[in-house]
TrEMBL record:
Pfam families: ADH_N (PF08240), ADH_zinc_N (PF00107). InterPro entries: ADH-like_C, ADH-like_N, ER, GroES-like_sf, NAD(P)-bd_dom_sf, Zinc_ADH-like. Residues 25-331 form the Enoyl reductase (ER) domain. This is Alcohol dehydrogenase, zinc-binding domain protein. GO terms for molecular function: oxidoreductase activity.
């Protein structure tokens, strides 16, 4: 078990940061420390963070993916709910980008950055973000619940919106317990899809069924019929199954590759079966607003694995690295 390093500044804010990156031992670069109060650039707002959710992106950052060594130390974290300078409860959108530069979709801005990449992230008592990145928090969601939505849940929401599936169609979700998978299972059911789940673990499959999955299969198992769309966040371990599970003309939506890049990609199957492959990253501010409203209106609550105080973040990172998680891990700040 590796321990986080600690140091303190005279007057600062508690933060969890990447001090260095290490592909084989990512947690060795994790530091809990006091950092100086952030400056607030013009047009940006200061947020007092009350809850911040952990994502696999934070582990990738510690492995050096998307985080250059000359940008260290960098405060980690993409998801947050808190209070703005006027005392308004807010949810933070993690995509720092210009919609005009992305032809109306800020995620397509070539200069887009996600919180914790070029700008400090949400695992800190105080956070600064552009004013447009703050959305009102619905009363129906508490801080811990709202903090789960801006990354994994937003991505699952966009994956479903871009799946080409219509209500009543069947969606296969690869993986049962990941942040994206649990979000996809709950949201797909609420959107009127038939939801099938493929998992590597029977107990996790039972938990997926409790979330509302209509059927659960072993990883790689032949399905009773082909599905209209597959949502894949797992990568190498599931890609072949995803391509075999989707009907001719159906869609495989991919947002991540936790188990690595698939090889081979199987181009012959993709063109012969006319499979649409759609890549998704995060979602727009408008989509996050839609997701918040949808969850509030339909009484949808994110699946939460555990809640920890921010200074115990290492415990959450270790669980995520071990794959010992079902739903979101959330850090709180009193
Ligand atoms: N593009 C984006 O904007 C975006 C947004 C969010 C996440 N992501 C990416 O999507 C991926 C999923 O993220 P997540 O938050 O849902 O959490 P995660 O902890 O990476 O879990 C994802 C799923 O992968 C399965 N899994 C994990 N390790 C595996 C392995 N070695 N072999 C086979 N299956 C494995 C698990 O399935 P079981 O439950 O069946 O065990 C789990 O449900 C990550 O790589 C993340 O970086 C991308």
């Amino acid at each position: 078990m590796c321990r986080p390093l600690c140091w303190t500044y005279a007057s600062g804010v508690l933060a969890v940061l990447a001090a260095r990156t290490d592909d084989t031992n990512p947690l060795s670069g994790l530091v809990v420390a006091d950092r100086p109060e952030p400056d607030v650039p013009e047009g940006w707002r200061l947020v007092r963070v009350k809850a911040a959710a952990l994502n696999h992106h934070d582990l990738w950052s510690l492995r050096g993916v998307g985080l250059r060594s000359d940008e260290l130390p960098r405060i980690l974290g993409m998801d947050a709910a808190g209070v703005d300078e006027d005392g308004n409860p807010v949810v933070v959108h993690a995509v720092i980008a210009d919609p005009d530069a992305g032809r109306g979709d800020e995620v397509n801005d070539p200069r887009r950055s996600l919180l914790s990449e070029r700008y400090d992230g949400t695992f800190a008592e105080h956070l600064v973000v552009p004013a447009r990145n703050l959305l009102p928090k619905p009363d129906a969601l508490d801080d811990v619940e709202a903090a789960c939505l801006p990354t994994a849940w937003l991505t699952a929401y966009r994956m479903l919106l871009r799946s080409g599936a219509r209500p009543g169609d069947t969606i296969l979700v690869q993986g049962a317990g990941g942040g994206v998978s649990t979000a996809a299972i709950v949201l797909a059911g609420a959107m009127g899809f038939r939801v099938w789940v493929a998992t590597r673990d029977a107990e996790r499959g039972r938990r997926a069924a409790n979330l509302g999955a209509d059927a659960v299969f072993d990883r790689g198992e032949r399905l009773p019929e082909r599905v209209d769309a597959v949502l894949d966040s797992v990568g190498a371990a599931t890609w072949g199954h995803s391509l075999r599970a989707v009907r001719p003309g159906g869609t495989v939506v991919v947002c991540g590759a936790t188990s690595g890049d698939p090889s081979p990609v199987e181009l012959n199957r993709i063109f012969y079966q006319q499979i649409r492959i759609v890549g998704v990253t995060m979602g727009s501010r408008d989509e996050l607003a839609g997701l918040l409203a949808f969850c509030a209106a339909r009484n949808i609550r994110p699946v939460i694995d555990r809640v920890l105080p921010l200074h115990q973040a290492i415990e959450g990172f270790a669980a995520l690295e071990a794959g010992d998680v079902f739903g979101k891990i959330v850090f709180t700040i009193p």
